[in-house]
Design goal:
The protein has 377 residues and is mostly beta strands. Helices cover 6% and strands 45% of the residues. It has one domain: 6 Propeller (Neuraminidase).
């Protein structure tokens, strides 16, 4: 993933406001009552960047049974009923994080992903109380296979003016034209059949890992083309020779969940600007786990960082819109205003969400609290 690694240095307000999932009448009568707005209950406010939430099967309402992967503290923790955290695993480092998190269906194995960005190394970790933790290198697989290595990103056949324009943006900006680089940032994991499926936001793909640690490519997500308008060029300090060109950004998968019939549902946060300065480009894909075929079923999300499946309802967090939305006719339908909305999980009739702690844009210091909440109707 080029220039779009998810960062915890995102400013987000901690104020929680609520809106209903459906449009209620402005003047309800005695015969028609307005839908009851969702109620947000804080389970803990001791997190910074709750990238993923997982619920252990059979432990609902037993000291919550809710677990969180906090990329800000590099820890995986269980949330106690009093809001304190019990550390399950930690991956300390100056430039490291934990992100993906999922329980096995039997509730015996906890899968979590970790990344050392400074060393360019990443792992899938499988933790069981009776055998400890086994660790499989996802970065080694990325370096050897580079599944999107033949995928073209950027502008096809760019002019010299366009090449020079992107060079002037600096070393952190993507070039005018390139193919997939070797980069791994595993951001989500889920059990699918006898495999663990990892959504790699750096590799732009889904890989599957068996219990012996054998890794293979399941699917490479498609590039995300954007036509550069005059306004977009001006906002990104690009000259007129770039206006009208189509730039294929990287897809950046951020979450993967198993849906009906074994299909996989994936959110993407397109590469390039993380914010919606080029438009709300976050999408939801369905992936056939047997063939790797992908189909986009919704787009237009302002920072699609997570999704949850509840029957036929698909919940999507929109980080930059500060809300949770549902998929409706291929587009976002606002469900709940939740500033800093970063992660969402559904289990056994319960909907949970994690919110990013607000930070000072200049210093990068945390100025408030992140939360894990339960959303009740």
């Amino acid at each position: 993933m080029r220039t779009s690694r998810l960062s915890i240095a995102v400013v987000a307000s901690t104020t929680i406001a609520l809106v209903g999932a459906t449009g209620a009448s402005a003047h309800p009568t005695t015969a028609t009552k307005a839908p009851r707005a969702p109620r947000v209950v804080t389970l803990t406010d001791r997190v910074i960047a709750p990238f993923q939430i997982a619920v252990r099967n059979g432990y609902i309402n037993h000291d919550h049974g809710v677990y969180v992967a906090d990329g800000g503290t590099q820890t995986v923790s269980r949330i106690r009923s009093n809001g304190t955290l019990s550390t399950v695993a930690t991956f300390p480092g100056k430039d490291s994080d934990v992100a993906g998190l999922a329980w096995s269906r039997a509730g015996r194995t906890l899968a979590w992903t970790s990344t050392d960005h400074a060393k360019g190394e990443s792992w899938l970790n499988l933790t069981r109380s009776d055998v400890g933790t086994r660790r499989f290198s996802l970065s080694d697989y990325e370096k050897s296979a580079n599944p999107d290595g033949d995928v073209h990103y950027g502008i096809k056949n760019p002019t010299q003016c366009q090449i020079d324009a992107f060079k002037k943006l600096g070393p952190d900006a993507p070039p005018a034209s390139y193919t997939g680089i070797k980069d791994s940032h595993p951001y989500s994991v889920v059990q699918w059949g006898d495999y663990w499926v990892v959504a790699d936001a750096g590799g732009n793909d889904l890989v599957k890992v068996d219990n012996q640690g054998h890794i293979s490519t399941l699917a490479v997500l498609p590039p995300q083309p954007v036509k550069i308008t005059k306004a977009a060029a001006a906002a990104n300090h690009l000259p007129s020779c770039v206006v009208g060109a189509t730039y294929a950004f990287e897809p950046v998968p951020t979450d993967v969940e198993v849906g009906p019939h074994g299909l996989l549902y994936v959110t993407t946060l397109p590469g390039g600007p993380e914010d919606p300065s080029l438009g709300a480009r976050g999408s939801v894909y369905v992936v056939n786990g047997y063939t790797g075929q992908t189909l986009r079923i919704a787009t237009g999300f302002a920072g699609a960082t997570n999704l949850a499946l509840a029957g036929r309802t698909i919940f999507v967090t929109e980080l930059f819109a500060g809300r949770i939305s549902t998929v409706h006719q291929g587009k976002p339908r606002p469900f709940l205003t939740l500033p800093g909305a970063l992660s969402v999980e559904y289990s056994a009739g319960h909907l949970y969400a994690g919110t990013m702690a607000p930070m000072d844009q200049k210093t990068g210091k945390v100025t408030g609290k992140g939360r894990v909440v339960e959303i009740r109707r």
